[in-house]
Amino acid sequence: MRTVRDVHSRTVQAPAETVGALLDRLGSDHDPLFPAPAWPPMRFDRPLGVGADGGHGFVRYRVGAYEPGRRIRFDFTDGTGRHEVTVRPEGPDRCRVQHLLEAQLPPVRRGLWFLAIRAMHRTVVKELFDNIERAAAGRQIPAPRRSPWIRLLHGLAWDRARAVALPAAARLAQRAFPHTDFEDAWQMDLLPGLPDAPEAWQGVLRGAAFPVVGRTDQELLLGEDARHLDFRASLLVADGTVTLGTVVRLHNTTGRLYWAVVRRVHPFMARTMLRRIHRRLALAAPTAAEREAAVRT
Fold it and tell me: Considering the chain, what percentage of its residues have pLDDT values greater than 70?
């Protein structure tokens, strides 16, 4: 195996103590630095400290060393290497932030690193540094401009919707009909920075202008009645997730024949639509540093 090494650093016009205090909040519920929701958030099974286990997306690691306000080392759980962030003062009002990655990879994984992972890694580090400058130095940095290659990789790596039972909290959908002939639900995590108002997710059914037939603080119900079937789509934002649910009531032979065809493609369409708006809203969301500034004001 050969070692890959990737180092990035940036001078920040802010005291090391200020940057270090922000760094100590990595992985927390109010992380002002990691570029979520555009990228999967950094999460751990306990507060930041040696032994905390977690990662971001498919990258898994645990905290191997921690010097509050100065340095955090993350050891990859597969034993291949580490990545770490350090803050070093360069005067009373300036510091140097560095991110280092070292890993020993077999040929196939090394090829994948050079082909795709390195580009995404460098983009995430750059956006992390941008957030440091926004949060610590108050710099107005434009929104990231990602290359077509990064956008392609980003789309391929984005999380998929998972099948779940229609949640009990989706009360409008649960009570839509006296009986239902079909129901399903697809769910994704509500990443930090994604909107928690169900109205913000109404565009999930893009191209199908279904009217709103009911709403609560957590759920928006869309639907339409026809002679052959009645259809309802529920958008539920609750318990840290967003769920797209469907309930259908059939009326006659025409409805049964129609739905026998449509139900074959419906799961693919439902999970694709939810994943598409989930990613679109994540890319349009304010940065972590911008959300931090909004809270302070």
Answer: 99
For residue 161, count CB atoms less than 10 angstroms from its CB and return exposed for 0-12, middle for 13-18, buried for 19 or more: buried
- 21's enclosing H/E stretch is helix 16-23
**CA end-to-end distance (rounded Å), the chain:** 50
Regarding beta strands 59-67 and 53-56, do their DSSP bridges make them parallel or antiparallel, or are they unpaired? antiparallel
C-beta neighbour count of 245 within 10 angstroms: 26
Which whole-number Å values give the CA distances from 230 to 43, 203, 218, 246, 271, in the listed order? 41, 20, 23, 11, 21
pLDDT bucket at 1, cuts 50 / 70 / 90? confident
Strand ranges (E), 45-172: 53-56, 59-67, 71-76, 81-89, 95-105, 162-164
In sequence order, what are the residues at sequence separation of 6 or more whose Cβ sits closer than 8 angstroms to the Cβ of residue 291? 32, 192, 193
| pLDDT tens column, 8-65 | 999 999 999 999 999 999 999 999 999 999 999 999 999 999 999 999 999 999 999 9
Please list, in sequence order, all residues whose beta carbon lies within 8 angstroms of the beta carbon of residue 39, skipping any fewer than 6 positions away.
Answer: 56, 57, 124, 127
For 28, which DSSP code? S
Any residues with CB less than 8 A from the CB of 33 and at least 6 apart, and which?
A: 22, 23, 25, 26, 128, 131, 132, 135, 288, 289
pLDDT in tens, 133-165: 999 999 999 988 999 999 999 999 999 999 999
